[in-house]
Amino acid sequence: MDIAADTSRPPQPAVTVPLSGSQPPCTIQIDGTAVDAIVGERLIDALNRDAIARNRREVPQVCYHPHLGPIQTCDTCMVEIDKKLTRACSAKVVAGMSVFTE
After folding, report:
1. Taking 60 as the threshold, does the pLDDT of residue 17 lie above it?
2. Which residue in 7, 38, 49, 74 has the fewest CB atoms around it within 10 Å?
3. Pair 72, 52: CB distance under 8 Å
């Protein structure tokens, strides 16, 4: 079965930023595109949400699970944040940050 040709899955609904608690929403740049996020959330969660919303490739991740938190052992989720290589699983969103995934 060709996964790329699989049309049996229904289209995903638009993904919105879950506003919870007292953390304010913010805007960050991901690969040059403005994206809504929440100050203090894990960057990997914002990246994954954006990838789903825009039907883009997710940042690779082997040792991260949203319910378990970052283990920080595999280095597969490395991204460039403000010109420094960083693990996306352990980085927290800061308003105005610039992230490059490729």
Report:
1. no
2. 7
3. no
Sheet containing strand 84-87, edge to edge, reads: 33-38, 25-30, 98-100, 78-81, 84-87
CA–CA dist 22, 101 (Å, integer): 28
Q: DSSP states of 37-74 as a string?
A: EETTSBHHHHHHHHHHHTT-PPPP-SS-BTTTB----S
pLDDT per residue over 59-78, tens digit each?
888 888 888 888 888 899 99
Separation of alpha carbons 30 and 36, rounded Å: 10
Question: Do residues 75 and 65 touch, judged by C-beta distance below 8 A?
Answer: no
Indicate whether this model's pTM tops 0.70.
yes
Q: Are 66 and 47 contacting, i.e. CB atoms less than 8 angstroms apart?
A: no
Distance CA 63, CA 7 (A): 29
Q: Give the pLDDT confidence of 87-100 residue by residue, as tens digits.
A: 999 999 999 999 99
